[in-house]
Amino acid sequence: MPDSEPLDAVDTGIVSALSQDARATLTQLAEQVGLSVSSVQARLRRLESRGVITGYRPIVDAEAVGKPLAAFIEISPLDPAQPDNAPELLEHLDEIEACHSIAGDASYMLFVRVASPRELERLIGQIRQAAAVRTRTTIALQTFYEYRPLVPAASEKRPLGR
Amino acid sequence: MPDSEPLDAVDTGIVSALSQDARATLTQLAEQVGLSVSSVQARLRRLESRGVITGYRPIVDAEAVGKPLAAFIEISPLDPAQPDNAPELLEHLDEIEACHSIAGDASYMLFVRVASPRELERLIGQIRQAAAVRTRTTIALQTFYEYRPLVPAASEKRPLGR
DNA sequence: AGTGAAAGAATAAAAGA
DNA sequence: TCTTTTATTCTTTCACT
Prior knowledge:
5 strands, Tscrpt_reg_HTH_AsnC-type_CS (chains A, B), 162 residues, Tscrpt_reg_AsnC-like (chains A, B), elongated, DNA-binding (chains A, B), sequence-specific DNA binding (chains A, B)
């Protein structure tokens, strides 16, 4: 439950700079936003402790780590009368990268990555069994882009000097 | 086009550690994998230049940055005879976080984030117009998890001391 | 490829405005 | 809440294995 206080321009600048490179140093961030390093450090810690920033991830080539096959899996309860806690029941399956509840035919949308069609088959079986659901799977053939920055670069927002 | 040489245990360890915290210092990574800092630095640079790691992102609370509404948008060409370069045509829309081509009824699956239903309506209009497609939108009601590490923590793979 | 050491850079903590 | 200062830690480079 992140703090609901709105972000000021400096906070937004920090988040924006990190969105381009989350390994940027405090010194680099400080240059970007025009404050001292210490201030930026305090701001960043506050953003983290308020839950505005909840972690940092590398963008990893899926093939290089042996998971070239991505898919969307929509799931729906077999028995709509049963209590539904599919996200919990599936949390241990670490092939699942994301889990959203959705408005539509299905109850949830998962995004998964696996090594092979064979592994996908196995994973779908595990999902069905673990959560008592039926599934509808859509294979991703090619990823054009993903993990695009949630907050666009600050330099793109005010085309001043460029 | 990332290098296809397979990752050894050390590389995997580095990627795994970064997957938990992409802002980890080289010193921390070195501890994790049991090599010197210099070696880890050289390894990490190599992973980056080979395209195994292509960037770093913060995980940002979508509400805090004013984009509380997420949706999946499937798109299909209005005229299947036309050349199809939808991903390019849509790239400038920075509300689009991801774009995959898919096997299924539709041609592409987008994942988008916007400020409001009104903004979603506007975005869908822009997508239709820019790429000459029809769309099918599924709203995300709640996100249980996302951006889960592609590579699980090394400590979870060999439950030795814990 | 990996190590260790030395110089330079970044971070953390503290004090004051 | 920002800045400056200082101590500590991290990163970088390089000579060597």
